[in-house]
Amino acid sequence: MEFSCVRIAQRNLARSKKRSDPAVDLEDRNILVKDADIWNGKGFARGSIFIQEGRINRIARSIIDTGVETIDAAGFKALPGFIDVHVHLRDMELAYKEDFATGTAAAAAGGFTTVLDMPNTVPPTDSARRVIEKQKVAAQKTHVNVGFHAAAVSDSHDVESLAGAGAFSLKLYMPKPIVPFDVENDQAIQKMMRAAGDAGMPVTVHAEDVDAPKNTSQGEGFEEAAEARPPIFETRAVDRLLRIQKKAGCNVHYCHLTLRSSLMKINASTKSTSEVTPHHLLLSKQLLSSLGWRAWMVPPLRSEETRRSLLKSTLAGLSSVIASDHAPHTIKEKNQSASRSPPGVPGLETTLPLMLTLVNRQQMSISLLVKLLSENPARIFGFKSKAKLQKGADGDVVLVDLKKKSKIDSSRFFSKAKFSPFDEFKTQGAVHSTIVGGKVVYREGEIVTREGSGSVLHSGFSG
Q1: Most C-beta atoms within 10 A of its C-beta, which of 59, 96, 167, 210?
Q2: Does residue 234 contact residue 256 with C-beta atoms inside 8 Å?
Q3: Residue 218, Cα to own-chain centre: how many angstroms?
Q4: Adjacency order of strands within the sheet including 112-117
């Protein structure tokens, strides 16, 4: 019954937005990007991109101005819109931390045209009804494309309903399940994974041993808190989940991994994909003594040796995805002892500048950057018309100034979370403009669209 109601609700939501929202007027989705260096999958070629009714209509060396909005992109690199598959946009009862408007403004400023929101919200995203509720609220606020993950649930019929509502995955948070779930029971996990596989839906996991929360209360310092969640917790969880996954036969995406060994094991599994974050690639736990709560997240920062190994492995192509794990909190909440400070740091506005800095240092190729931040996320989560600059693809384009030097300043974030472990980091490479579905959302430091100009995305798992 709920499944059929889901379909009706989805149709009504789409129709109402089409009728009443001027942001979806197709004439607003026409734009000409002139004289950019356009990424073609192998390198850059000078040319222009004409986006009509939200999709790329033509790419050519020269396109005559057709009277539509035109951007002079000379000197900028045109890249396919970036996709962040792991963000916490909060909203609902946690809107004081972040809401769909501020979170997606941060995404646009960071060059992300599509984001997937995690389900550990208040209330949790654990039913088709709550997925649809989030979709309706986001439709009025979002600046970019937004989709939603759902919480891992035990009942197979509920899994089917979540797929029908358009959820992009079931998220299993092993140390502290989002909703009641017997994470210590292999059979329960296998049943959930099999149901997800039957629905065509992947499972995303926070792979840390279930003993982790029992140990985090030891000591009040952040270094002690990090030591209480050692790398072996990740190793044990990954090994266990890979065994269960093999029996269940479903696709599993392993979030925010911190170890080279995890990447290697997952890379060897045909139905597994991996994810790393900028903070685990670039920061080590030695910084906890000086940064404290500003650098507190889970999994925690690792040793410098482990960090270097993770970065080297990622640059060698062992990871599938880079995601921000954007997790905003208020400074008042964060600025407490380790046992009270909620884990997580904002990352939507720092990820791309940090990665472009690696590009400018010739540590990362543009090809790998596009693969980790656009192509692979699109492939893993089923965005068939995104992550490419070619005729017929969605008009999601980011114009990047590779030469621009900046310094990260969290006080200027669009996010409500005005802190960052990367404050004062010097970067080279910045977003000039972010175009979503043929509409300029962000340009030279400003959001230039109103709330609700973005789109709510539904997975294709419901058929």
Answers
A1: 167
A2: no
A3: 31
A4: 82-87, 112-117, 145-148
Neighbours of 122 (CB within 10 A): 10
DSSP string spanning 126-161?
-SHHHHHHHHHHHHTT-SSEEEE-EE--S-HHHHHH
Round to whole Å and give the CA distance between 150 and 169: 6
C-alpha to C-alpha distance for 41 and 393, rounded to whole angstroms: 14
Q: Is 345 helix (H, G, I), strand (E, B) or coil?
A: strand
Query: Measured on CA atoms in the order 231, 235, 240, 242, is the torsion positive or negative?
Result: positive
User: Which residue, chain included where needed, has tokens 């500048």?
Assistant: 353
Distance from C-alpha of 336 to C-alpha of 292, rounded to nearest angstrom: 9
Q: How far apart are CA 108 and CA 433, in angstroms?
A: 8
> 297 - beta bridge partners?
none
Instruction: Report in angstroms the alpha-carbon separations of 367 from 151, 197, 370, 392.
Output: 33, 31, 5, 21
Is the distance from CB of 81 to CB of 396 less than 8 angstroms? Answer: yes
Residue 385 carries which DSSP code?
A: T
Q: How far apart are CA 196 and CA 149, in angstroms?
A: 12
Assigned CATH topology for domain 81-382: TIM Barrel (3.20.20)
237/82 Cα distance (integer angstroms): 29
What are the Cα distances from residue 13, in Å, to 21, 456, 459? 11, 10, 15
Q: Smallest Cα–Cα separation from 309: which of 330, 284, 292, 333?
A: 284
63, 66, 67, 69 alpha-carbon torsion, rounded to 10°? -50
C-alpha to C-alpha distances, 23 to 20, 126, 254, nearest whole angstrom: 9, 30, 35
* The residue type at 71: I
326 φ/ψ sector (left φ>0, alpha ψ -120 to 50, else beta): beta
Would you write out the chain's pLDDT as a tens digit for each of its 463 residues? 344 444 444 444 443 343 334 334 555 889 999 999 999 999 999 999 999 999 999 999 999 877 899 999 999 999 999 999 999 999 999 999 999 999 999 999 999 999 999 999 999 999 999 999 999 999 999 999 999 999 999 999 999 999 999 999 999 999 989 999 999 999 999 999 999 999 999 999 999 986 655 544 445 799 999 999 999 999 999 999 999 999 999 999 999 999 999 999 999 999 999 999 999 999 999 999 999 999 999 999 999 999 999 999 999 999 999 999 999 999 999 999 999 999 999 999 999 999 999 999 999 999 999 999 999 999 999 999 999 999 999 999 999 999 999 999 999 999 999 999 999 999 999 999 999 999 999 999 999 999 999 999 999 864 4
Active-site residue identified among 91, 209, 325, 401 = 325
